[in-house]
Design a protein that fits this description.
single chain; 106 residues; mainly beta; Immunoglobulin-like; 4-stranded antiparallel sheet; 3-stranded antiparallel sheet; globular
């Protein structure tokens, strides 16, 4: 996948299996060229989708914790692979930025 938003995008998700029912998810533009709102969508192994938004500033990482920072996020995380999709704008209707994922295993 290629981004539709200019910048030097870096994502951060757990690179080892998550087992504590919380995953730290982060994004930044290491070039510092993008400031403003971004949204992310997390798709669970069951196909459920949860969204949240945050704001980028300079080269700083913008970090959220799934499911804590997501409205109506699940109480527990079922085992499996989760997909994280970043888009520009608050509503997730802006251009695609990046995609990443993490795995949950009890």
């Amino acid at each position: 996948m290629s981004t539709r938003v200019e910048g030097a995008w870096e994502t951060s998700v757990p690179r080892t299996k998550v087992s504590d029912n919380a995953a730290r998810i982060a994004l930044r533009d290491s070039s510092g060229a993008t400031d403003g709102p971004v949204s992310l969508r997390v798709v669970t192994p069951d196909g459920d989708e949860y969204t949240a938004s945050t704001t980028l500033a300079g080269t700083d990482w913008s970090e959220l914790v799934f499911p804590n920072h997501f409205d109506d996020g699940p109480q527990t995380l079922p085992d499996g692979t989760y997909t994280v999709v970043w888009s520009s704008g608050e509503a997730g209707d802006g251009p695609f930025i990046s995609c990443d994922g993490f795995r949950v295993e009890a």
